[in-house]
């Protein structure tokens, strides 16, 4: 569906406290298949974007809004971090608090 054009990561901004649309989710899955790290940043009125119980190919932004997520993702990629470590940076503490 989408061409990565050399991108190493992307932040998809959703709206409200919901989840990504079906099209955005499919695009994120397609990009993940091309090696692009995808972070979903939604805009809840307060609180965090809680990751799903089972980790998938889309990383949740946690307490960070889209601009903050973009900067954190850029820093993680520039530091050479792989997908698993990037997921831990974004979701680690909130995943531990909610699901453990």
Low-confidence stretches: none
**Oligomer kind:** single chain
The CA-CA distance between the termini, in Å, is 36 Å
Major sheet strand order:
1-2-3
Beta-strand percent range: 5-15%
N-to-C SSE string, H for helix and E for strand: EHEEHH
| Domain unit count | 1
Cα gyration radius (Å):
13 Å
Task: Examine the secondary-structure arrangement and name the CATH architecture.
Answer: 3-Layer(aba) Sandwich
- Average residue-wise pLDDT: 83
Q: Could you say which structural class the secondary elements and strand pairing correspond to?
A: alpha/beta
Structure description:
With about 100 residues, this protein is α/β, with parallel strands linked by helices. The chain has a single domain (about 10-100), classed as Rossmann fold. About 40% of the residues lie in helices and about 15% in strands. The protein has three helices and three strands; from the N terminus they run βαββαα. It has helices at about 20-35, 65-80, 85-100, and strands spanning about 10-15, 35-40, 60. A three-stranded parallel beta sheet has the order 1-2-3, sandwiched between helices. α1 (about 20-35) links the parallel β1 and β2 (about 35-40). The N and C termini lie far apart (about 35 Å). The mean pLDDT is about 85.
């Amino acid at each position: 569906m989408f061409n990565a054009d050399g991108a190493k990561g992307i932040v998809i901004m959703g709206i409200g406290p919901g989840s990504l649309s079906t099209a955005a989710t499919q695009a994120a899955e397609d990009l993940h298949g091309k090696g692009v790290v995808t972070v979903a940043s939604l805009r809840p009125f307060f609180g965090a974007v809680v990751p799903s119980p089972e980790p998938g190919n889309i990383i949740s932004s946690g307490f960070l809004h889209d601009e903050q997520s973009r900067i954190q993702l850029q820093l993680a990629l520039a530091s050479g971090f792989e997908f698993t470590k990037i997921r831990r940076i974004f979701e680690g503490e909130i995943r531990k608090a909610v699901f453990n």
